[in-house]
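Following up on my earlier thread - several people asked me to post the actual chain instead of describing it. Fair enough. Here it is, all 326 residues.
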Amino acid sequence: MLGRSAVLLHKKPRNPQRSIFGADCRGMRKKRTKAWIVWLLGIVAALVFGGAPPAAASRKEALHWVDVGQGASLVAVGSDAVIVIDSGPAGASEAILRALGEHGITRVDLWIHTHFDADHIGGVVRAVAGLDGIEGTGDDLEIDILWDRGLESAPTTAVMADYLERFGDRRRAVDTGERWQVPGLGVEVVSIGGGADENARGLALRLEVGALSTLVLGDLPASEAVVAAQRAGTVDILWASHHGARNGFDPRLLDLADPDAVVISAGHKNSYCHPAPEVLAWLAGREVWITGAAGIAPSGPCKGLAASLSVGHQVLGGDLVLAVDP
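Reply from S.P.:
Thanks for posting it. Predicted structure:
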């Protein structure tokens, strides 16, 4: 079923095994009780948040995956702070700005790029100019801090050059174990890939919004993703690596992270056959939200994809908003 998805998540106790907010890590972890209430809405997510964009002091905690086509971007909304992870391709800025606007956001406290592929870093330069595309006007977006993996063996692409020209004096490389947090919102770098290509050099993050935890894997290969999951501990949401590609997924992730739901960011008409049928098969019977797919019709260009979808798999036609019920 296609359409923007707005999902209300009943707030659950924090994961006692692992929390960047300092929860008790002793003892055996009890299995969380899954309590999703799902509405598939063909309307704007502003309805979820009650009409007009909320003021910062009254914002509802949420995770907002932006449909940027073939790429990735996530807005983590705290009650009084905001983290954005990745910025999609160059054409994604307007979609990201509209997503921020739905939550009344004009300032991002921390913007993290997991790695420097164009479909993860391309939208941020244009986004700071606001929807009118002109810096110095009233709709400009403020960004306080930018994190990335560091510039060792950074690609020499045009999008990378634009990023460095605009943010070179403000961005900062981070190390494993680095944390940023305010009450109700935080992120920790749980690993940095050590491979040869750009995907394998990326950051893995444990993100916490309210009582919900998410493992963010960027485009890490499966072996690096497993290492990240081992360090992160159990989470509520697994954001699948590399848009659901076969080389980014290992069934061990489901045992290590033990997620209640999996999110896959992929373009609706991507040429890579994302997500892979093997990954969907491993996720059979689990709650899965997919922001796009290469072709889900049985006669589509990616054979086996439609047949691999199972109960609990939802292919969306827009953004995915997970709002935490207080």
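The helical segments are 93-102, 118-121, 124-127, 158-167, 222-232, 252-257, 277-282, 305-308. That should answer part of your original question.
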